[in-house]
Amino acid sequence: MTKVLITGGGGFIGQKLARRLAADGSLRGRQITAMTLIDLAEPKAPEAPFPVRTLAADISDASAVAQAYEGGQDVIFHLAAVVSGAAEADFDLGMRVNLDGTLNIFQAARRQGDSPVLVYSSSCAVHGGEAPDPVTDGVELNPQTSYGTQKAIGELLLNDMSRKGFLDGRGLRLPTISIRPGRPNAAASSFMSSIFREPLQGEPANCPVSRDYPVWHLPPRMIVEHLLHAATIDGADFGPNRNINLPGRTDTVGEMVDAMTRVAGPEPAKLITWNADPVIEKIVMGWRQRLLPEKAVRLGFRAPDSFEDSVRWFLEDDHRDVAQS
Amino acid sequence: MTKVLITGGGGFIGQKLARRLAADGSLRGRQITAMTLIDLAEPKAPEAPFPVRTLAADISDASAVAQAYEGGQDVIFHLAAVVSGAAEADFDLGMRVNLDGTLNIFQAARRQGDSPVLVYSSSCAVHGGEAPDPVTDGVELNPQTSYGTQKAIGELLLNDMSRKGFLDGRGLRLPTISIRPGRPNAAASSFMSSIFREPLQGEPANCPVSRDYPVWHLPPRMIVEHLLHAATIDGADFGPNRNINLPGRTDTVGEMVDAMTRVAGPEPAKLITWNADPVIEKIVMGWRQRLLPEKAVRLGFRAPDSFEDSVRWFLEDDHRDVAQS
């Protein structure tokens, strides 16, 4: 008997995770008896063998968060966030959602008094500035964006509140998700999906960085796997730091385009234009794209074998023809 | 023409800093034209060649902070905090003062629109957990106390708000201050001063850890020097990370007692009792007491030569006989 809450439940990861949990019917070896999805706009509920509640709620509103916790939650996946480009453009918005909102989610978990499992989606955007290249475990977080800063603050709160026994936190620094389905968004990393997604669906896309720009990436299927694995393993196994660099894979944009061509033929790559965008370049150059996540590998998180798989999985899971069928 | 604000202005460092600025009459090569001291209880105003305003204010109250900024501030020393033992005992109090209060101070500086210099007192308590021993620059902050967590969050905010040009931040991770004047307080590190201060004034004191416990320490005179140096150097010299490990000195409690004996004779050491306190031990064992602060040394911050100096300076500056004269 376990109840699950997903914030950002209307996002593509939230939706994939919800569908997967509905298909599994259980989590941590226990039958799921209820699931709550919250997002700014009311999320779509998946077909499920248990009741699914959907709420339109702003996590920066503590009373809306209290409503999402009504009846108690056993496992919380906190995915909701204002993305990097938007948090950079509007500092106060990022602070309100990514800091105040995250604290609302954590405090509501604490208020339950039973230390629920809380999986927190942090980001590799916490790395930058004076961090070495490659980034090893134990490197000081020196984010060069407000988004990365707010995610790093959430990590510190998650760790301290786990130490205090208020919640049982597990923080994952997600690599760039590629190939992300849907439409381009305000994330500075949006192009890292759109230059594959749009051409694979017959549409043009622009790449604002050069072919030799490296990307630290992970496909949506493995993100969902990692979130479930994080919820399942013993929180104490994380040790004194509940936040980890998640495995991913580094390929240059050019190598990823070549992988797409090997899977889908030469036509998609012809739809990519290569016009530099200095604003995007400045943000993404501040990130780290090579990481050595040894602790996460010890904890059983695995790295992807190739970007070809990511292209195949996009075609299987998220291509317009599949998604609309 | 420069105006100075000191939060925690009633504390012993705030008072020493205020007296020093009053004696200097200038900061960053400019004449001081006004100084504001705020603290929970109205701070004592030093004799000064410029007007000194004193305010009783809780920094977690944004309107009180706005009052402290009235007329504009050019250099802010943010020293106010709930100390480690108190923040550990009362999580919400620590969050309110050390996180919300710090954010109020930073946001008020931002609201000025002229990016004032802001010196932030962080703490070596940000280090612990998975951090290596000794702590080098660039090590992930993994605090094992709520105080250290809240200080680390302040650092991230300081850095991001400096990057955005909202303020010109300089964050200093202060070593344990020894010999701190006054009375024992709720800091878990309180004994690191009291076992010298009380015996040097003819009173008994208990040491809750063993003689071989190492302490990363700095005397009050050098703390004031470091705060002034931090305010004076160019903010850009800090690079992408505005927060630094400050130089200090590692001696075991036993070595420090021996140094006291060399300066003040054998009597004070006889007034120390050695009854272990597991609660204090658990907190201070989570800290790091050996650091290699290379960046700070490059920036011109210097390490103390001996603990003997600290004992001498206590006798000159803070001994009851001096303080009451």
From TrEMBL, chains A, B:
Stretch forming the signal peptide: none
GO molecular function: oxidoreductase activity
Keyword field: Carbohydrate metabolism, NADP
Pfam families given in the database record: Epimerase (PF01370)
Entry annotated with the keyword NADP: yes
Superkingdom assignment: Bacteria
Residues forming coiled coils: none
Domain Ketoreductase: 2-219
The keyword NADP is annotated on this UniProt entry: yes
PANTHER family assigned: ADP-L-GLYCERO-D-MANNO-HEPTOSE-6-EPIMERASE, NUCLEOSIDE-DIPHOSPHATE-SUGAR EPIMERASE
Protein name per its UniProtKB record: NAD-dependent epimerase/dehydratase family protein
Biological classification of the source: Bacteria, Pseudomonadati, Pseudomonadota, Alphaproteobacteria, Rhodobacterales
